[in-house]
Amino acid sequence: MDELRAVEELVGRYVDSINTCDPGIIDAIWSHGEGVSFVAPAGRFKSYEEIRDGLVMGIFARNFQKRSLRKEDLKIHLAGNMAWAEFTWSFDAVTRAGEEVHNRGLETQIMQKDGQGAWKLVHIHYSRI
Fold first, then answer.
1. Domain boundaries in the chain?
2. What is the pLDDT of residues 20-47, one digit of tens each?
3. H-helix or E-strand containing 46?
């Protein structure tokens, strides 16, 4: 598969992981190695387990009954076995209390090829705009 397309698909699967909070998708797209991290307004998550349990299954799954994350203006950069993507995102959701949430922001994702040649997320940093 073309490397740009593979990274684009990984970003799409990440969006799916937030919208569905599916642990299987989360497991498949993230590296489980050391140094994995996620920086967000909600805090810093410093391992695959913290990202899965504290952020996606914790904050997103626990706090929102409906989630719709969308990406725009995706830019992908390749450098050997590393890649990074940057995009603008929109997030519309409904809290467990029934309140609507509408946010926009910027996101950077860093990916690395694993030992089998598959792209995996190793770091994400996002902020609201």
1. 3-128
2. 999 999 999 999 999 999 999 999 999 9
3. none
